[in-house]
Design brief:
Number of helices of chain A: 6
Shape of chain A: globular
Strand order of the largest sheet of chain B: 4-3-2-1-5
Number of strands of chain B: 5
Number of strands of chain A: 5
Largest sheet of chain A: 5 strands, parallel
Largest sheet of chain B: 5 strands, parallel
Radius of gyration of chain A: 14 Å
Largest interface: A-B, 15 and 14 residues
Structural class of chain B: alpha/beta
Strand order of the largest sheet of chain A: 4-3-2-1-5
Structural class of chain A: alpha/beta
Helix content of chain B: 25-40%
Distance between the termini of chain B: 23 Å
Strand content of chain A: 15-25%
Helix content of chain A: 40-55%
Oligomer: heterodimer
Strand content of chain B: 15-25%
């Protein structure tokens, strides 16, 4: 139903707010995005905010028999060129650092491949370019 | 105050639905409001459900995060065009509008629905 609603737009901006371990929400966000892309919808950006930034934490270890949102998003981005962005403020608070932030903090980088870190402005840019905004609260 | 230029600005509503003890989340929503203002959107803020509790003065110790009340109180100063509170939630929590630390307009459910429909963007 959400997909039918969203498909009336041609460009979507997608915000994910639910933590990766919130399985149902994290899975819905990923599967929705994959389905929208498969149907020819453009996705201007997927922006991870609040606890969802932990999706891009490289050092999280997910048991082999569990749904792994980080890996699934990375595969989807590799296949489609999807732009996966973690909010910088939310990421820093939760210890997710790209190489530049890591150098400033004198820590190793903890950002998973396939993701990048940017400010909320990147989200507003994506919103203004899109016809519709879809948010997964989880 | 609506200027001729402001009538063409896109209208965005930020929904605040988290209680004040929901960790960093209310503060991160506040960041979103400020960024939307920086993008020159016409921004309104609606406190709904447990989010109305953010409008109460902070009571008691326990929350290690800095109080975002000062920033909430300055929303109008920052250029937010409307601050609204969910009347049904205020009633459910037994909160009088006079007790709020931010001057918010209480809206009944149908009025909130109309507010949502007037927006170009829900953030």
């Amino acid at each position: 139903m959400l997909l039918e609603y969203a498909m009336r737009a041609s460009k979507l901006a997608i915000m994910v707010c639910c933590a990766p371990e919130a399985r149902a929400g994290a899975r819905s966000a990923l599967e929705f995005t994959a389905a929208a892309l498969a149907r020819g919808c453009a996705v201007t950006r997927v922006f991870f905010y609040h606890d969802a930034v932990a999706t891009g934490l490289a050092t999280a270890v997910v048991p082999a028999d569990e749904f792994d949102p980080r890996e699934r998003w990375r595969e989807l981005a590799a296949a489609t060129g999807l732009d996966l962005v973690l909010c910088v403020g939310a990421a820093q608070r939760r210890g997710i650092l790209d190489s530049a932030l890591a150098a400033d903090a004198e820590h190793p980088s903890t950002l998973a491949p396939g993701f990048r870190i940017a400010g909320l402005g990147a989200w507003l840019d994506a919103v203004l370019e899109a016809d519709r905004v879809i948010r997964f609260e989880g | 105050m609506a200027s001729p230029a402001s009538s063409t600005r896109r209208r965005a509503l930020v929904l605040m639905r988290d209680p004040p003890h929901a960790g960093i989340r209310p503060r991160e929503r506040l960041d979103l409001i400020l960024m939307a203002l920086a993008f020159e959107l016409e921004v309104s803020v609606a406190f709904v459900g447990a989010g109305v509790l953010q409008l109460l003065p902070r009571s008691g110790p326990g929350d290690p995060l800095p109080d975002s009340g000062a920033a909430l109180g300055s929303l109008e100063l920052y250029g937010v065009s409307g601050i609204y509170a969910d009347a049904e939630a205020l009633c459910a929590y037994g909160i009088e509008v006079d007790a709020l630390r931010v001057p918010a307009t209480a809206l009944e459910t149908e009025e909130l629905a109309a507010l949502l429909h007037r927006q170009d963007l829900l953030l």
